[in-house]
C-alpha cells in the first residue's frame, strides 16, 4: 500500500510529513511526500514558515502521481491560497480516499493557515475530503460554531463526506471523538492522557489514511487510530525543552511478524490455502498468559482474488483462535511462540509426513458438550488433548458440524513458521 502525504516539513519530526512517514511505516504502508511549506520549529515554538513555490509543489505532485500507484492521500498544512489552488487542481479528479487534517494553528500557538486563505480552504480543500479530522478549535474556525453536532453538519455541507471532530468531549480519564458519516453519527471514546504533546493530530489522520488505504471501514479506521494515538502519547518523548513529541515504539516482535506476514503474502499461490474463516498469523511474548500477550492481525489475512491482503493491524490480542492455540502449545513447549492457520488439505499433511515433521491431530466430534458450550474453549481442549512428548510442527482436525477443518502450523518464531509453510504448500 502507498500513501501520499501533502503537508509542511517539521524539522523536529514531531508533526508534518516527517511524522506521517513514521506513522505510515508503523502501519506497514509506504509513504510518499509532497512539501507545501518548510517550517523552522521545535518543541517550544515555530520561528519561520516558508511556503514552497507553486511550480515546486506542482512538480512534486506530478513526479509522484505520474509514476506510482497511490492508495490514499493525506492533506495536512497548506498555508496559503496559492498552495490550496495547486492541490485542488491536481487532486479534484483523483479516485482514492483523501483524508484532510486541517492544520490551522500549531501546538505552540503559531498560525499555520493564513486568514486570507480560509475561504479558499473551505471552497477547494474541504470538498476533496472523504474524511476530515478537525479538533474542536479547528472545527469552530471552519464552521463558525462550537456546537459539535452543528459544526460537523456545516463542514459536511461544505463537501466533506465524513467529519470527525477529535476531542469533542473529554473528562479526566476519557476523551471522545464525534463522527458524522454520510448516513450515521456516533461517538468513539478512549483513555485520556493529560499531557501537552506535539504530533497527535498528525498521528491520528495518518493512521486513518493507512486504514482506509487497506480498504477498512471508517468506523474501524477511527477505532484503530484512537488506539494508535493513545499509544503514541503514552510513549511520547521529552527530548526537547518544550512539549513532548509523540512516538510509537514498534517492538522487534511486531516488526518480525510484519516482515513474515509480507513474506507469507508473496508466496506463490498462497491464496489457495486460505480457509473460509481466513488466516491469522501470531507471535507471542515469552511465557504468554493470555491472548493479550500474543501479537496477531486484528482482522485477518484475507483472500482477495488471487492475492492475500491484510485486513486489520498487528496488535496484541489480535487473534483469539490461533493465539489461544500457540499459548496452549507454549505451556508444554516454551520454545514455540508463533503459529498460523491454513485450509485443511490431505496433500499438506502428506508433505509434512515426508518432511518428517511432528504431526498431531484431534477429533472435534469427540469434544465434550461442556467444552463446546463454553466460548473459545474448543481450541484449548483440542490442542491440549493432542499434545504428546514431542514439540508439534503441525496440528490438524477434520472439522465437525458447522466447524471448518483446519491445519495449524507452529514454530519458534514467525520466520520458522514461514519456512515450514513454504515447504508444505501443495500448489506451486
UniProtKB/TrEMBL annotation:
Gene Ontology MF term list: ATP binding; hydroxymethylpyrimidine kinase activity; phosphomethylpyrimidine kinase activity
Ranges of residues in domain Pyridoxamine kinase/Phosphomethylpyrimidine kinase: 10-245
Protein encoded by which gene: thiD
Record keyword GTP-binding present: no
Gene Ontology terms: biological process: thiamine biosynthetic process
UniProt protein name: Bifunctional hydroxymethylpyrimidine kinase/phosphomethylpyrimidine kinase
E.C. numbers: 2.7.1.49, 2.7.4.7
Domain (Thiamine-phosphate synthase ThiN) ranges: 257-422
Superkingdom: Archaea
One family name in Pfam for this protein: Phos_pyr_kin
Keywords, sorted A to Z: ATP-binding, Kinase, Nucleotide-binding, Transferase
Amino acid at each position: 500500500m502507498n500513501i501520499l502525504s501533502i503537508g509542511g516539513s517539521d524539522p523536529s519530526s514531531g508533526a508534518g510529513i516527517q511524522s506521517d512517514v513514521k506513522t505510515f511505516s508503523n502501519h506497514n504502508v509506504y509513504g510518499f511526500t509532497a512539501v507545501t511549506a518548510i517550517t523552522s520549529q521545535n518543541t517550544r515554538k515555530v520561528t519561520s514558515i516558508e511556503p514552497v513555490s507553486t511550480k515546486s509543489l506542482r512538480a512534486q505532485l506530478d513526479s509522484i502521481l505520474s509514476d506510482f500507484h497511490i492508495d490514499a492521500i493525506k492533506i495536512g498544512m497548506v498555508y496559503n491560497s496559492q498552495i490550496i489552488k495547486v492541490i485542488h487542481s491536481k487532486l479534484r479528479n483523483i479516485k482514492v480516499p483523501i483524508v484532510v487534517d486541517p492544520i490551522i494553528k500549531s501546538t505552540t500557538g503559531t498560525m499555520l493557515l493564513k486568514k486570507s486563505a480560509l475561504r479558499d480552504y473551505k471552497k477547494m480543500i474541504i470538498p476533496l475530503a472523504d474524511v476530515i479530522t478537525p479538533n474542536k478549535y479547528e472545527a469552530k474556525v471552519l464552521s463558525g460554531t462550537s456546537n459539535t453536532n452543528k459544526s460537523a453538519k456545516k463542514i459536511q455541507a461544505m463537501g466533506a463526506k465524513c467529519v470527525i471532530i477529535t476531542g469533542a468531549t473529554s473528562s479526566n480519564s476519557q476523551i471522545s471523538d464525534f463522527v458524522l458519516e454520510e448516513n450515521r453519527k456516533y461517538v468513539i471514546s478512549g483513555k485520556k492522557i493529560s499531557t501537552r504533546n506535539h504530533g497527535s493530530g498528525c498521528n491520528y489522520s495518518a493512521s486513518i489514511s493507512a486504514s482506509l488505504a487497506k480498504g477498512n471501514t471508517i468506523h474501524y479506521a477511527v477505532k484503530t487510530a484512537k488506539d494508535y494515538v493513545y499509544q503514541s502519547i503514552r510513549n511520547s518523548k521529552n527530548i526537547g525543552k518544550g512539549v513532548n513529541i509523540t512516538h510509537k515504539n514498534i517492538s522487534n516482535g511486531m516488526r518480525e511478524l510484519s516482515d513474515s506476514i509480507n513474506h507469507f503474502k508473496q508466496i506463490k499461490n498462497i491464496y489457495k490455502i486460505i480457509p473460509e474463516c481466513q488466516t491469522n498469523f501470531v507471535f507471542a511474548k515469552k511465557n504468554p498468559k493470555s491472548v493479550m500477550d500474543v501479537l496477531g492481525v486484528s482482522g485477518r489475512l484475507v483472500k482477495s482474488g488471487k492475492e492475500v491482503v491484510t485486513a486489520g493491524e498487528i496488535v496484541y490480542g489480535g487473534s483469539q483462535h490461533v493465539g489461544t492455540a500457540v499459548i496452549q502449545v507454549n505451556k508444554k513447549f516454551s520454545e514455540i511462540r508463533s503459529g498460523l492457520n491454513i485450509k485443511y488439505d490431505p496433500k499438506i499433511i502428506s508433505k509434512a509426513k515426508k518432511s518428517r515433521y511432528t504431526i498431531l491431530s484431534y477429533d472435534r466430534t469427540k469434544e465434550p458438550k461442556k467444552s463446546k458450550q463454553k466460548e473459545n474453549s474448543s481450541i484449548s481442549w483440542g490442542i491440549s488433548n493432542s499434545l504428546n512428548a514431542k514439540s508439534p510442527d503441525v496440528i490438524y482436525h477434520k472439522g465437525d458440524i458447522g466447524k471448518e477443518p483446519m491445519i495449524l502450523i507452529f514454530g519458534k518464531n514467525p520466520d520458522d513458521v514461514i519456512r515450514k509453510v513454504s515447504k508444505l504448500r501443495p500448489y506451486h
